[in-house]
Amino acid sequence: MVKIIEIEARLFLRDRLNSLFAVLFPSLLLLVLGAIPALRTPDANFGGQRFIDSYVSALVVFTLVFIGLQRLPAVVATYREKGVLRRLATTPMHPARLLAGQLVVNFVAVILSVLLLMLVGYVVFGVDLPHHPLGLACAVVLGGAGTFALGLVIAALAPSARAAGGWATVVFMLLMFFGGVYLPRFMLPSVIQAIGSYTPPGVEALQQAWLGTAPDWRHLAIMGLVSLVAGTVAAKTFRWE
């Protein structure tokens, strides 16, 4: 299993455009936004906080959604389309190990991206470190699990790698919208904000843990439920060839 993870990590790094984008883009975007003086000024719309303080949770949403929906489904569907999974099924190494390796490598990329975001925000702009680290860890793990599970459902049902990419892009754009990446959440209708709170990867839980207190257990529970349901669907519908 360790060897599989090592190989998948090398392949991840070889895909420099997507791998670097996934890990670095949130921090780079924070640097760009933080260069605008108005976004470094406390604002009543953000509860007296600065825009950049409030937006860090949306940047975590971007990381989870990009890796879970833009990269994972396309890679897994490509493996199936090229016969990699079928060939592995004829060896002592079950192809499920390959999927497990994919999940490990991609989740490590999420962790690196979030840690880099913390470092850049704190050192450059004085953004608070997470007020509830354990709550943030739970929110990232459960929100990431839900998002990755949705990505695996797409990989399982899509007839080709190209279709998987197209389907995943639609879901990617929706989750980015509900997660407040395109527009600050206070500008969205209350019903959209509520949907985003319970839609993977759970922006409300991420924001509560980063800038407030422990995240609402209901948000975490929904993320866990989505992970369980979507993971079950993916497992029952996944085709190795």
Automatic annotation (TrEMBL):
**Transmembrane segments in this chain: where?**
20-39, 59-79, 99-122, 134-157, 164-183, 220-238
Which domain of life does the protein's organism represent?
Bacteria
| Major location category of this protein | membrane
User: Looking at the keywords, is Transport present?
Assistant: yes
Tell me yes or no: is Transmembrane among this UniProt entry's keywords.
Answer: yes
- What membrane topology does this protein have? Multi-pass membrane protein
- Report the locations given in the UniProt record: Cell membrane; Membrane
Q: Which UniProt keywords apply?
A: Antibiotic resistance, Cell membrane, Membrane, Transmembrane, Transmembrane helix, Transport
Q: Please list the residue ranges annotated as the ABC transmembrane type-2 domain.
A: 17-241
What InterPro entries does this protein's entry cite?
Answer: ABC-2_transporter, ABC2_TM, ABC2_TM_bact-type, ABC_2_transport
Family membership: Belongs to the ABC-2 integral membrane protein family.
PANTHER family, alphabetized:
DOXORUBICIN RESISTANCE ABC TRANSPORTER PERMEASE PROTEIN DRRC-RELATED, TRANSPORT PERMEASE PROTEIN
Q: What is this protein called?
A: Transport permease protein
Q: Which organism is it from?
A: Lentzea pudingi
